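Q: I have two molecules that I believe assemble together. Could you output structure tokens for the complex as a whole instead of separate predictions?
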Amino acid sequence: MRLIPFLFLLLFFFFPLGMAIAPGILGSSGFTLTYLAQLLSSSYIQGIILFTVSQALASTFLALLIGFPAAYLLARFQFPGKGLVKAIATVPFVVPSIIVALGFILFFGNNGVLNRFLFSIGLPGVFLLYSWKGILLAHAFYNFPIPARIISSAWERLDPSFEDAGRTLGLSGFALFRRVTLPRLAPAIAASAALTFIFCFMSLGIVLILGGVKYATIEVGIYTLNSILLQPELAGALAFIQGVFSLCFMFFILSSAKALSFGESGLQPAQRPLSLPAKIGVLLYLSLMSILVLGPILSVAWFSFTGPAVPLIDVFPLLAIRNSLLIASSVLLITIPLSLALSRITSPFQGALVMLPLGISAVTLALGYVRAFSGTFLLSSLLVIVLLHSILAYPFMFRSISAAREKISASLLESARCLGANSWSVFRRVEFPLLKNSILIGAVFVFAISLGEFSAAYLAYSSSVYTMPVAIFRFLSAHDFRSAAGMGLVLMVISAFAFFLLGRMEKNERS
Amino acid sequence: MSALDVKGIKRSWPDFRLEASFSASDGAITSLLGPSGCGKTSTLRLIAGLDSPSSGDIRLDKKSILATPTEKRSIGFVFQDYALFPHLSVFENIAFGLRVRKKPEKEIEKKVSSLLSLTHLSGIENRDVFALSGGEKQRVALARALAIEPSLLLLDEPLSSVDIDLRKKLRSDIRKIQKSLGITTIYVTHDREEALSISDSVVVMKAGRVEQQGSPDAVYSSPKDEFVARFTGPANIIDAEAIAGGFVSFKGVDLRAGSKRLGPVKLMFRPEDSFVSVKKPAHGIELILESVSYSQCAVEFLFEGDIRSVMLRRELDFDPDEFTGKRLYLSVSRLSAF
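A: Yes, here they are, computed for all two components at once.
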């Protein structure tokens, strides 16, 4: 019984992962560097790797630049509308990347909402799209909530006595920040930067849609090599390089997360009200942030009613909605018991192993599935997407549940046993009620991830099986902006509704 | 009848070894007393079946319970942190064991309300457990353990997180409830006063082993060794020579100590059994006072020579500060030797 969750991971994660990578590192006589060498000597691949790393670095820097002031504001100041700011800073995180790309086209596009507004008041337009600028901006927008959230929560927990000690020693203002506060925030900044980097590093939808033909990342490269150039060896080798790279980063994130938990304090630093010049600065920052965040989102809603419609093709919106909902619900049915079973793990090595899918790209995994299960019924049904999404999303559920499980003291379970409860009864009467909230939170995230996931659903492609994000992509490719936006709106409304339900349930729980 | 027999249980951890035997008679409170890390809680966990010994036997009512899983042992366990279920009310916490046993609703209500009044909790049964005070939590945990009518009650430092003022009252409440139900109880504590005042029998433990088991008076007045003597109360311990007839000779004075051996022994006496006088009494030991220091209810005399320091009761009929460097006489009314 205990082995079932591991067998599941073995069959639907490690096996396809191996199948994706093996052709790239295994020759006729075992391990070979041939393909890796061939790959790294190609100037096309060199360019791809260089672009992937540099765009991820630049995007991360930009996300930090946008997110840091938000973290500072949220951690240190009390002002009206703080809740709203928090909400706005959460929006991009819950919006699927395909919608981000869509929203950016509609808002920042050459003929988008922003430019039409600028033209109408006689100003020159901004042309960001189909270049690296659009990619960076979309990545920054999509990811700035990560530094904003992580840094602000670290900042809030910072022991104020360090700053007080700095003040008594004669420091103030920026010097105090640089010498006392910043070093204490460094682990949080590093962790959020690493996390942002890895998301940008593995991003597919945004690059595919906003980058045009000119810009390709490793993720796009793997897909191109395998499915268009038909060179599975090189695709496997590139997936291997990407995997090694992202796993190193994962390791870095996990070790800095450990450093993060050090030096917390229960003391709350005083949250100050804002001075007048600061107020103006904050207002400026917030309006820019709102335009960046709300502009693309609102454009999607706007275009879904008014955009130019090019009614066409064999994509049926209702079928896409049905597929997506069916897939997301099935993913929940798999990830909840899977994560519950896995969260009983106590060894750190196994714990790290279980988090591995976070460091493996959706494209690699999808290619592995195609290779591992070709010819089986799996590949011709929705089940392939359900399984892919389950693997990609369960780490979030697992994290949520195991964090809650760590807080359940062993004596609670032991006292239930002393009172006569067998293991099922202990689970039903004690563990489950105590984990319920974390399961719910995990479920909403898993549901939203599955609904918005694009790459895996796109690659495990068979024309009869498509999800909402894939439908959006197909509408976009056909320049049917109105249908794309309409589908996008439905997707956002469903996700938003899930998060709204979560908020309601949490509120009920508290009262 | 539910007497407990712990017979030579052994259990090893990488850095600790437990090896213990003791017994608890039916309807009595037997306390396990020892410093933290001596294996008291581990012993309790073995009795409850939350852990298994590598050898030895645990018998309840003369029958081995080692093969019985925890949930079938019917043992009430009050954990040190109380382990109240945070998602359940006071009522539901107490009712937990009854619900697991699928008792009818009416019976549950009756049982819980009688326990609520027994533990003076009536009126707060609908509260959330995190809104309770330390004393209330302790009583809910006790009521919950008692609800299943256990054949054995295990209390793991039940008062360690309660204010000192409240401790004495709760201690006597526990004693009263235990006596009224006549339930065999094992009480783990590192507080000697608690152990001596509440128990019928005390098991003194040290580094995974039982040092001595006996009535509170026996372990206090006739400790078996220096560790037990010091752990059960303030003790004066001096080196002496045992001579025939149970007498012990110290500085030429023969003292009755009930020693069964001959030769070098250690003599132990409690502060309250000894006093210092200016005039020489019969069997008084002559000593030169070096200095005096005061504490709460005792005075520590530092003497020159063989007896370095002696704790005494504070009640003195002279001012010891005036006698530094002078001759004083120590007499002891009760002694034990080991």
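A: One point stands out. The mean pLDDT of chain A is 83.
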